[in-house]
From TrEMBL:
This is Coronin. Residues 5-69 form the DUF1899 domain. Keywords: Actin-binding, Coiled coil, Repeat, WD repeat. The keyword Coiled coil applies. InterPro entries: Coronin (IPR015505), DUF1899 (IPR015048), WD40/YVTN_repeat-like_dom_sf (IPR015943), WD40_repeat_CS (IPR019775), WD40_repeat_dom_sf (IPR036322), WD40_rpt (IPR001680). Belongs to the WD repeat coronin family. Signal peptide: none annotated. WD repeats lie at residues 78-120, 128-170, 171-212. Pfam families: DUF1899, WD40, WD40_4. GO terms for molecular function: actin filament binding. PANTHER family: CORONIN, CORONIN-2B. It comes from Seriola lalandi dorsalis. Residues 444-471 form a coiled coil.
Length: 476
């Protein structure tokens, strides 16, 4: 496909990318070197969270958005996981709540204090165990305040109700590792891509597969719902090993509507869709560029707009929510680009050039806000609602009065032969297994010594007793 732009009546045809000045970047960040295919970065209007390199266990940093510049080498971290952190996501409704998943098979929910961390955080608000293997993906429900989805290497998706801190549903229709998850606007449908080369559209509450495509010519890596257009977009690889994107009808996955080859590079393509502007951004792992398109409901469906180019390759990308953008500068999207070689997080703003300084209503329609439309109980009962919308005209000043409350669980015990089985949980990592082994060896050694001492004492007492018995008849 030729990437020469066709000039048509589009208000976004001149969108350009602007890299932040060095003083507005975040420098000295020990970004993880993990090769897991994920973004390793999550952003909201308060904080930037990034997975970091650490020795033993897994950790991530949480940096206030306003605290740009070079970080201290001893900057505090969130470091409660016992294995590498594979994914992090901010709660869309509680801006101090972040979820993380790890190779230690757990999903944890953390509450970050206003102003950021003062010391290392090791205690999570919730620790969720349900997967038998490492957990590679997590995703918050787009309209419900207390629903979290997690996908593990056990080929299962668990739905967690955070109001009770328990899994309420397991989706078990995949036969290999789940590569990505995406929700439609109201969260009533879930699209997944899987290593078994199948694309699925699932009804999450029942776990029923509504549509399924076997992608033989287009090996799917990532999938994203295109808002309310009833379309899916996937990125993947063609049979000739070229990077490719495909557009699908969510109600009929028999054949893609259109397929377009991108290039012959090998890095994974991450799709980002902005439902307000109908713009699609494509960023390749290890690439320095970001391509962007406009998506329409009529042919040619995908309209190439422009390309942002940079010499620095990206490890992953975080995206600022709409209410955190600078509307006075006509900013319609903002990436936070991880540059591993420099230990740098680099904000990249996508800007629509406008001469007027007034609010541009045509590029800022009503957008999803930070108020949940449903509680977890309502969504689980079968209710679906569209997101609660907000205007960006007066900036984002309305504080969210909601407070995240973690469930208080009663301490249960299952005692067998004097041992509490719930208190003595099995080890989850090799290091933990070794530590437990050496502790048990020390305990066995101590018990053997104690047993030997008692045996000696018993023999002494038996001899004294025999002496007393022998002395007694003589006295008589």
């Amino acid at each position: 496909m030729s990437w020469r732009p066709t000039y048509r009546s589009s208000k976004f045809r001149n969108v350009y990318g602007k890299v932040a000045n060095r003083e507005h970047c975040y420098d000295g960040v020990p970004i993880t070197k993990n090769v897991h295919d994920n973004h390793f970065c999550a952003v909201n209007s308060k904080f930037v969270a990034v997975v970091t390199e650490s020795a033993g266990g897994g950790s991530f940093m949480v940096i206030p958005v306003s605290q740009a510049g070079r970080l201290d080498s001893h900057y505090p971290k969130v470091c409660g996981h016992q294995g590498n952190v594979l994914d992090i996501k901010w709660n869309p409704f509680f801006e101090n709540i972040v979820a993380s998943c790890s190779e230690d098979t757990s999903v944890r929910v953390w509450e970050i204090p206003d102003g950021g961390l003062r010391r290392n955080m090791t205690e999570a608000v919730l620790e969720l165990y349900g997967h038998s293997r490492r957990v590679g993906l997590i995703e918050w429900h787009p309209t419900s305040s207390g629903i979290l989805f997690s996908a593990g290497y056990d080929y299962k998706i668990l739905i967690w109700n955070l109001e009770i801190g328990e899994p309420v549903k397991m989706i078990d229709c995949h036969t290999d590792v789940i590569l990505s998850m995406s929700f439609n606007t109201d969260g009533s449908l879930l699209a997944t891509s899987c290593k078994d080369k199948k694309l699925r559209v699932i009804e999450p509450r029942s776990g029923r597969v509504l549509q399924q495509a076997s992608c033989k010519n287009h090996r799917v890596n990532r999938v994203v719902f295109l808002g309310n257009m009833k379309r899916l977009l996937t990125t993947g690889v063609s049979r000739w090993n070229t990077r490719q994107i495909a557009l699908w009808d969510q109600e009929d996955l028999a054949m893609p509507i259109v397929e377009e080859d991108i290039d012959g590079l090998s890095g994974l393509l991450f799709p980002f869709y902005d439902a307000d502007t109908h713009m699609l951004y494509l960023a390749g792992k290890g690439d320095g560029n970001i391509r962007y398109f406009e998506i329409t409901t009529e042919k040619p469906y995908l309209q190439y707009l422009m390309e942002f180019r940079s010499p620095a390759p990206q490890k992953g990308l975080g995206v600022m929510p709409k209410h955190g953008l600078d509307v006075s500068a006509c900013e319609v999207y903002r990436f936070y680009k991880l540059v591993t070689l420099k230990g740098l997080i680099e904000p990249v703003s996508m800007i629509v050039p406008r001469r007027s300084d007034t609010y541009q209503e045509d590029i800022y329609p009503m957008t999803a806000g930070t108020e949940p439309a449903l509680s977890a109980t309502e969504w689980l009962s079968g209710i679906d609602r569209d997101p609660v919308l907000m205007s960006l005209k007066d900036g984002y000043h309305r504080p969210n009065q909601l407070v995240f409350k973690a469930p208080v669980k009663e301490k249960k015990s299952v005692v067998v032969n004097g041992i509490d089985l719930l208190e003595n949980v099995p080890p989850r990592t090799e290091n933990e297994l070794l530590r437990m082994f050496f502790r048990q060896q020390d305990e066995l050694r101590r018990l053997k010594e104690e047993l030997t001492t008692k045996d000696v004492r018993i023999r002494q007492l038996e001899l004294e007793l025999n002496n007393l018995k022998n002395v007694s008849p003589n006295n008589v």
